[in-house]
Write a structure and sequence with these properties.
The complex is a heterodimer of chains A (252) and B (456). The mean pLDDT of chain A is 92. Chain A is globular, with a radius of gyration of 18 Å. In chain A, strand 4 (54-62) and strand 5 (65-66) form a beta hairpin. Chain A has helices at 40-48, 72-78, 95-109, 117-130, 136-139, 148-162, 178-191, 206-210, 230-239, 242-251, and strands at 2-11, 14-24, 29-33, 54-62, 65-66, 80-83, 90-94, 141-142, 166-170, 197-202, 215-220, 223-228. With 252 residues, chain A is of the alpha/beta class. By secondary structure, chain B is α/β, with parallel strands linked by helices. Chain B has 2 domains: 24-404, no CATH class; 411-456, no CATH class. Chain B has a 10-stranded mixed beta sheet. In chain B, strands 3, 4, 6, 7, 9, 11, 13, 15, 17 and 19 form a 10-stranded mixed beta sheet that branches. In chain B, helix 9 runs antiparallel to helix 10. The chains are: A alpha/beta (252), B alpha/beta (456). Chain A binds chain B through residues 48-51, 71-73, 75-77, 81-82, 84, 87-88, 90-93, 97-98, 101-102, 105-106, 109, 141, 158, 162, and chain B through 408-409, 411-420, 422, 426-427, 429-431, 433-434.
């Protein structure tokens, strides 16, 4: 579904990604872990198309299409979804209006008619129940005055509404207490199926207790230096990142 | 800034400029046209008292001349190009007027409509729905006969002539305007729309409507003034509005400026509030070459509630100047003012908001904000909030911001599949939203939103 080959990227002339290789098949959940500054958030930003980053080499293919050629909105409409580490507050735009626009823009892109208002509201209601969202949040301005937990749940709610094929979650666990973490993870797990893939980026292993990955990769200095299954995450939690660093330096 | 138990005077930097007499050279061709128009009034005006007022006003205008950028209040707004045009009172092109009336001006809304073309009243094009004959909706000329006492009591009593050249010009040369009288305790069934059209099909047109709105005690009025223009020639609209709000009355007053990019527009609105009045005023400036709005509120009685909201959308070489003044002349009054602008291309906006808290106006609560979004590197905003406080138990805040659309919300929206132009529209509508929500007529909000969409 998503194939990243030798991806290199920089910001303001500083190289951050130094040749990433990653293959994600339909239905797989991959976790990317790594110490601060390893390039985790850069990877998610490059995949979503944030303009601040320059891709200096490599390719990203999404369902046969050259992802790097597409604008951020086209990536989204092709089925990529980025759950933000810091969801943006947009005063004056209600969650309902925002999502109606997003859903219908995606339908337009796919050559479909806009959704009927009643059908859309029914879908909203169903997905809100699925995500255990408070109904009042949707009539309020997008993320405005939301708590950290509400913002992250709103990200997963949007994910449920837009039904992407590939979900990238950028440190979704940051700033969440254990109850909020459980709610967000439950939401994500309900969206897992054979066709939908996830790339879960996190610094800590605790999120992976709830969203159990098929594969875990360790990112260090802009490269994937180690891959394994869910047990690798637990090993990192016990031993920290230093032994990885030592291993990398020794092999260098 | 918030001040209680403070005696302060924040800004006081007027320049006192030597007034210059209007010489032939300075006023040019336009000055000569105005003199000819005035001679016409000498022949036509039957009422001695109104001719006396015209004489006084014209003398004042000649003494003052057009305002110049050497004057502090006109620092950023030059009227030089108006003085070069030979604007005069012209006959309208009725076919084009009718076409305009059909396609614009919130047609679907059920309302009383009074149509004025180049300042003249056209009853045949107007539509009056009120059944209660004590509610008077007509023109000033008719009112001088039918409601002579009310006109005598209120006409030219609130908007100053002395020192205000443009008001003097209107007072001297206005052919007519709307007269609205809502007697004590009455509430019209429908909103009242004043359709002012500047028609420059035959040449550069001068339109000087003069409106008087008298709302007696405990009465309610809902008035929408719209300004449109037709014709390829430039037009010059110079308006004076006087609104008298009797004790305990409520007034909803909107002004929609939608003249074309060839039109110059100056407007002076004086709201005079007796005790316990509630006024909600919204000023929308959507087009025009040069627009200057002067909006003055005077609280003559205590416990008033005054709301002043404005939105301006500017583009090309347009200049929009909003000067507001709120006189807290009585205690225990509340005022809330918010003006917002979206600027494109090489356009310029000026905002000057003055809050004057008079001596003895204790327990004054006054808020004022001006916020601007620049859509281009070449657009300019000059903003100046002013507070002058001569009472010691007041709460006043003011502030101004100038910025661009933030990149982060744009990227957030795009990452959800919303194209950039649609995302910009959503953000601009959100920015304008807290002004739009003060407008109680959905049809008017739609006009506003369409214009915002066209701005992208």
């Amino acid at each position: 579904m998503l194939e990243i080959k030798d991806l290199k990227a920089e910001i303001d002339g500083k190289a951050i990604l130094n040749g990433i290789n990653l293959m994600i098949n339909p239905g797989e959940v991959h976790a990317i872990m790594g110490p601060n500054g390893a390039g985790k958030s850069t990877l998610s930003s490059v995949l979503a198309g944030r303009a601040d980053y320059q891709v200096t080499g490599g390719t990203v293919t999404f369902e046969g299409k050259d992802l790097l050629e597409l604008s951020p909105e086209d990536r989204a409409r092709e089925g990529i979804f980025l759950a933000f580490q810091y969801p943006v507050e947009i005063p004056g735009v209600s969650t309902t209006n925002f999502l109606k626009t997003a859903v219908n823009e995606k339908r337009k892109y796919k050559g479909l008619e806009p959704m009927e208002a009643t059908a859309f509201l029914k879908m909203m209601r169903e997905k809100m129940e699925l995500m255990e969202m408070d109904k009042s949040l949707t009539s309020r301005s997008l993320n405005e005055g939301f708590s950290g937990g509400e913002k992250k749940r709103n990200e997963v709610f949007q994910m449920a509404m837009l039904e992407p094929r590939m979900c990238i979650m950028d440190e979704t666990d940051s700033g969440l207490d254990i109850d909020a973490l459980r709610l967000v993870s439950n939401g994500v797990n309900r969206l897992r199926d054979k066709e939908r893939s996830f790339l879960v980026i996190t610094h800590y292993q605790r999120l992976l207790d709830y969203i159990v990955p098929d594969f875990v990769h360790v990112l260090y200095k802009g490269r994937i230096v180690k891959s394994g299954d869910a047990s690798l995450a637990r090993e990192l939690e016990e031993k920290g990142y230093d032994w990885i660093k030592t291993e990398v330096e020794a092999n260098a | 800034m918030t001040g209680s138990k403070l005696k302060l005077k924040l800004t006081h930097n007027y320049l006192h400029v030597q007034k210059s007499a209007l010489s032939n050279n300075e006023a040019g061709m336009f000055g000569e046209v105005l003199r000819q128009e005035f001679e016409q009034f000498r022949k036509q005006e039957h009422s001695e008292s109104s001719m006396n007022l015209r004489e006084t006003a014209f003398a004042e205008f000649q003494q003052l001349g057009f305002p110049t950028t050497r004057m502090e209040e006109w620092k950023y707004t030059s009227l030089k190009s108006i003085q070069k045009g030979a604007f005069k009172t012209l006959q309208p092109d009725m076919e084009q007027v009718k076409a305009l009336l059909h396609q614009s001006m919130v047609k679907s809304l059920k309302a009383n409509r009074l149509v004025f073309i180049n300042g003249q009243y056209y009853p045949a094009l107007s539509e009056l729905l009120e059944e209660d004959a004590s509610i008077v909706l007509t023109d000033i000329k008719t009112a001088r006969i039918q409601c002579a006492e009310v006109v005598e009591q209120h006409f030219a009593k609130y908007a100053p002539i002395h020192g205000e050249a443009m008001n003097a010009l209107n007072t001297a040369l206005s052919p007519d305007g709307a007269f609205i009288f809502i007697p004590k305790g009455k509430k019209p069934q429908f909103p009242i729309i004043l359709n002012h059209i500047t028609d420059s099909v035959l040449g550069p047109a001068l339109a000087q409507p003069r409106n008087l709105i008298v709302v007696e005690e405990e009465a309610t009025a809902f008035v929408i003034e719209t300004y449109y223009s037709i014709g390829a020639n430039p037009g010059f609209t110079n308006v004076v509005n006087e609104i008298y709000a009797g004790a305990g009355s409520e007034v909803e007053h909107y002004k929609l400026q939608h003249e074309t990019g060839e039109n110059y527009h100056n407007n002076f609105t004086q709201v005079f509030q007796e005790a316990k009045t509630k006024i909600n005023q919204v000023t929308l400036t959507l087009d025009g070459k040069l627009v200057r709005n002067n909006l003055h509120f005077y609280m003559n009685g205590s416990d008033c509630n005054s709301l002043l909201y404005g939105l301006y959308l500017t583009r090309n070489e347009q200049l929009v100047d909003n000067h507001t003044r709120v006189d807290h002349a009585s205690p225990n009054c509340f005022s809330d003012e918010k003006y917002k602008g979206i600027l494109k291309d090489h356009s310029t906006a000026v905002f000057n908001g003055k809050i004057m808290v008079h001596k003895g106006a204790q327990k004054t609560n006054a808020y004022q904000r001006n916020q601007n979004i620049l859509m281009s590197d070449e657009a300019t905003v000059n903003t100046k909030p002013q507070l002058e406080i001569f009472a010691d138990d007041v709460k006043c805040t003011h502030g101004a911001t100038i910025g661009q659309l933030d990149e982060e919300p744009l990227f957030y929206m795009r990452s959800r599949g919303i194209p950039e132009d649609v995302a910009r529209k959503l953000l601009l509508n959100a920015f304008a939203g807290d002004i739009a929500e003060k407008i109680k007529i959905p049809e008017l909000v739609t006009i506003l939103e369409d214009q915002i969409d066209a701005t992208i």
